[in-house]
Amino acid sequence: MELSQSIKSKIKAWEGCRLTAYRCPAGVLTIGYGHTGADVFPGKRITQAEADALFEADIKKFADGVAAKLRGARINNNQFDALVSLAYNIGIGAFQKSTLFKKVMTDPADPTIRADFAKWVHGGGKVLPGLVKRRTAEANHYFGQI
Fold first, then answer.
1. What is the pTM of this model?
2. Which site among 8, 93, 115, 139 is 20 to 30 Å from 103 CA-CA?
3. How many alpha carbons fall within 13 Å on the CB side of residue 32?
């Protein structure tokens, strides 16, 4: 399955772009469009071109990871997009352990999946309004209401 340009643009907007490393609400060192990892350290600076390249590499890794985890699931492209967006934000491990993932594997049309998106709205122990909006938009995308 191919990740749409539409969801890539949405993810970039939701993540925002910072060219200097910062700590996200969960306390993780982050740079660019939500890039984390051993290559991010306090004070690190990158260019916009580097941020764009990091995003493309990261989003491909997440799309490939989600596709591998969903092998055998009968999902459409909107559903794939939304699931990659969620995994990009919460991590592949958390995604695979989630009730949402289990429901998608059992019945991708299960309407209770919408409520499972809404469970992933915390950062640093607090409900973050930006995550509430993002999860609503992801659920709408998943159910074809874009």
1. 0.95
2. 8
3. 22
